[in-house]
Fold these 2 entries.
Entry 1:
Amino acid sequence: MLNLFWIPLLTLIGVFVSLSANRVSRTACAYATAALPAAALAIVISYAPSVLDGEHFVEQFEWIPAVGLELAFRLDGFALLFALLILGIGLLVILYARYYLSEQDNMPRFYAMLILFMTAMLGIVLSENLIQLWLFWELTSISSFLLISFWNHKSEARKGARMALTITGMGGLALFAGILLIGQVVGSFNLTDVLAQGDLIRGSELYPYILVLVLLGAFTKSAQFPFHFWLPHAMAAPTPVSAYLHSATMVKAGIFLMARLYPALAGTDMWFLIVTLTGLATLLVGAYMALFKHDLKGLLAYSTISHLGLITLLLGLNSKLAAVAATFHIINHATFKASLFMAAGIIDHETGSRDMRKLNGLWRYMPHTAMLAMVAALAMAGVPLLNGFLSKEMFFAETLQQGSLGALSWILPVLATVAGIFSVAYSLRFIHDVFFNGEPINLPKTPHEPPRYMKIPVEILVALCFVVGIAPGLVVAEILHSAATSLLQGETPYYSLAIWHGFNFPLLMSFIALLGGIVVYATRKQLFEFQAQFPERDAKAIFDQNIKRIVDAATRIYGTLENGSLQRYTMLFILSVALFTTVPMTKLINLEGARPLLPVDGISIVATIILVVSTLVTLIWHRKRMIALIAVSVVGLIVSLIFARFSAPDLALTQLSVEVVTVILLMLALFFLPQVTAKAASPSSVVRDLGLATLIGGVMATISYAMMTHPQTSIADFFIANSKTGGGGTNVVNVILVDFRGFDTFGEITVLGIAGLGIYKLIARMKLFMPSADLNGIPWSNDHHPMMLATVSRALLPLALLVSAYIFLRGHNLPGGGFIAGLVTAVALILQYIANGVDFMRERSKLNYQWLISVGLIIAGATGMGSWLFGYPFLSSWFDYFYLPGIGKFELASAMLFDLGVYLTVIGSTLLILGNLGALTTHARPEESK
Amino acid sequence: MLEISLKIVLVMISIALIMNTYSLVRGPSLPERILSLDTLYINSIGLILIYGIVQASSINFEAALLIAMLGFVSTAALCKYLLRGDIIE
């Protein structure tokens, strides 16, 4: 026996097999698609004998052990039953779809999505870990969305798919919350532990929340009232999808979940009330509505809803026998409903219509199909000798046994019989309206039998209905017993699968249902007239309206929070910083720490004065952008001088180079902006901003003062001590960047590269207004590239490159490094752009900046991965000392290669942004006045 | 001797810096302000070098080198802006 992991893995691989089978014939594509699910089915079957003997298998491996997550699969009787249904019916659907899909449909895509869905379903039923179960649960929502919207040129398909995704997606979120709560109560997400701790969960305070959340997930998925409305709209899907999703899989996932967690959650009054009442409501609403649908698939959709309600109702009864009955009905419903959907698809395919008002008398045109459909429909009605009869009988018996409603307990069997009556009535309608009842009316095609192989899946399923109905003990007894045992996690009570139990109440109820159904169908004219009095409620319109309301509300909230005003964001940001910092600051009693203050010298005072004055100039003339820009440059210069004064040469170098790049960037942007900003601030907001700025300034100054005067130990000592021995460099700043925190740096240059590419894409085809004169209305000079500047700049380039090489090479031991060197190179090249123009550069420099970014990132990444070759973690660095005659002793470190990656990425990103922002104007400047 | 002359030079550079800033604030035209900024760069180079001599350390000399180079680029870009509005064309 192969490992359990192979079952979902094989089908997952099947997705790619289908996708790659787009060059072969349609039949070959279907075979290729079927191969891997068939193999998976073989694995499941190889497990079957031991599982039927009562064994169960669990396989797992660690996934994220730190949070207690593992990838784990389990195969017990209940999972086996579902796996067989999913794979078996899935294979039949693959065969059926081969003949259903037309030449225009993209068959590989259809099959790929179908197999993806199959994988997700297998994942749900085989999961041992609940979180993992939930992941597959969400995957079914997504893949069913894709399947329902397969004919995405149809509006109703898109809308139906969206509705299904929204409803089941919401349920999925609730389920996730429920699972997390279960994990909190039990302390494990493993099904084995959870199922064993049923009493703990039921006794927990969280039980009501867990129950409601999990049931929300199950009810939305299984289309239980009042979430049932998505299912009829999902009928816009191709019929093979409906046959698969709405018989054995998608909607059964909710049922599966309730049954799977039955030992953990069931047995309380709350479970009984919620599940039974929901199931009852769904059963009745579905059965009633099904009768009035003129669309063949609409009838089947509501009938599916009704049968799902029946199973839910059984699960809600808190009786072991009822759970067995539910399991039995899962099998029966899957077989007859899949065959009915396929028959409906054949009828649609061969007549061109699904409207029962037009489809009449098809018996004469397609007797074979009619025969099959009629048997399946009779099974759905619960006629003796067919499988539907047996489970319905058990259902009736169970409703009679229920006493939880006290003196009113008779309501349940009565309502069950009513639902039975309607179920017979709509089954009759399916048979009589479609196959008899006169002649077809205005059909687009002349009906005829479908291709031979299209009927095979239906024949197999209908044969199953028969065999189970006649000899249940032989066919399903074993698997039913094993499934029910693992569902209940204990011994199953005695039950009899015999066809004949003698004259008793359930038989009477079946009889009433049959008779009543015939009467209801006979009086359908009156019923239709009665129903016509109700206004038609379009679930789609209501759904759209609600979605629109939610979107509107979200937009309103979003609009008030994010109104596009940069001033306001800054204000809110600073306000919250002030709030978070002022409160702790009031608790700091000793503002001044033990560290002595440094003596003040004259130069520092002068620098401070210049800093303050230039800051004030920026503030006062902030609307005159050019002056503000010059003043900001002064601020930057003084800040870098301060860095140099207080022994931070690396920071000084970085600050200086960033400063220049920023000024150039701002000037490039300024050209497109108004020279003078409008005065926008009202007096009150000026007062507010001034107050806020003073507050935050005061707070930050206090914090800085307190921090700098309090002696403290920091992580810095570690870096200083280990920089030379561990990283091979004496420049601690650089060693931190390329070695200790190399991973951070790698992330940062990646972000830088992405930002560069993003900006490039944004501005690539931008068209902007360009002023033809400066602030004072004087036209621009006609001298594009002044000769003096051009000459001086060209001479400067090699010098600047030399400087940047020097700064790069010494970086590991002395101030410098790849980042600063990259900026210096970039500035030197930018100067050539400024002095000589884009065209000049384009002729001479063949550098492709995107390419440069990727090379830089690849070098940095490869350096990091290189350490794997030697068995060290990502980005471990290596260094050694060498001797070359003529040069002397020198050091080589892998960190330098990493730094080279940083260097190239910085150049590429900077030039990609600045160069292209500059190039915006090159070919589109307004004509100059000559 | 060197000590005294260094002190005198530092005082002179400080006064020069203050005067540059005054000129930058007063303006009134943009070329004058750009010129003040450029002179600030030049005087900063002097300041860093003198300070390095006082401290007997060459660690900040690269900063002076960068100011010399990048300050020029910055001034050139500002002037190009005055001339053509668009600095890269």
Entry 2:
Amino acid sequence: MSYAFDFSDLSQYADVLLHGVVVTLGLTGVSTVLGGALGVVGAALVLRGPAWLRWLIAAYIELIRNTPFIVQLFFVFFGLPSLGIQMGEIEAALLAMTVNLAAYAIEIVRAGIESVKHGQYQAALSLGLSGRQAFRYVVLPQALAAVFPALLSQVMIVMLGSAVVSQISVQDLTYAANFIQSRNFRSFECYIAITAIYLVMAILLRRLCNGLGSGLFAGQKR
Amino acid sequence: MLSLPPIDWLAPKYLNWMLWGVLETLFLSLLVALAATVFGLLLAALRDSRRRVLSLAALAYQTVFRNTPLLVQLLFWYFGASSLLPAQAVEWLNTPRALTLAAGWTLPWPSFEFIAGLFGLSLYSASFIAEEIRAGIRGVPFGQRQAAAALGLSGWQAMRWVILPQALRIALPPLFGQYMNVVKNTSLTMAIGVVELSYTSRQIETETLKTFQAFGVATLFYIAIIVAIELVLQQLRQGRWAPVGVGRR
């Protein structure tokens, strides 16, 4: 094999790569917060809401979980403007990622809430907490502590899946890779470098969130 | 009064395109599922190998493939790895050709995009499937292994005839979950130019500007495929067709 590897060329694209990392992490962060919040609200509604709403949420979850993310992204990016809703590619990516994560998060949080023993809720009521307070201060913290690892893996899946948004020209890390390799023609080195960056990001983020989780839920270990 | 525009269906020509896309998605998914299951079994065996080098190598493989985006992996195999191949090999891979079978039947040779997609998806999916198989094997009580040994079966025989059939039965639902993921993941091969369902729906959208119809039909097809896989799983679990005793209790 006569191929001469040359990674040195990549250093001049450091700012492009950095921009990509920031966009990827930013998209992941925002969609995690929004999707996670929707997950909690959705799970509460699935368990307590009116029948028609439960049915609607169940349909939404099935629709999202059984179709590829790229089709969902195209729906948002190409479909919504034809209904008169204009948005840029970053907003479209954020919306698609949030809608996607929320569907999985509802299922995960619902399982967590169901895993909390009913006696906890009754005990909270007998202590004089309202139903809402019992849910917010007694049931939910235990539920979230129980499903934190599952939620974290889902967030990691969303982060890795966010590479797809480069297809609607969001300038994330994968877009940066495509950009650089179209300039310097060193596609092998370029994709190896990007793969390594994603790998490091995924491992560090997992570590960080695990640490954060054990701090947050320190009192909830069951 | 809100008046909705009349629904403008896709012309039959485009539905025909879409059907070809579905066939490509099904074909690619089937090949990936087969290849990834075989390779996943091998990876699972390596992970549980007593030789530390082998199990560490398998662990490293899984860490890399599970923690990087599938899209980047596909781009890597298509653009990156192909730049390492000698020029003649790339030219050979890119030349359209047909395999001539007996009695005048010809089989079109798959495109380089298809081969890169198949390769990348299989390597990726195997890293997940290996974990489901390992979990299945761990789910078989240890006494089964001892009983097999007491009956005079060798380690390999015990694995083949006693452990693995039971492990596969346990691992069947998560394995099928992975096959559903494979179907959804084939959509990413559109980025390297495989003409599957997502690719054709995007193409139709570009040509007709009927965004909702194009992606809507694609969505329905994906859901139909996933539902079909779910039905196969239920049949298998009820032991209707039990080729290797997977479903029997």
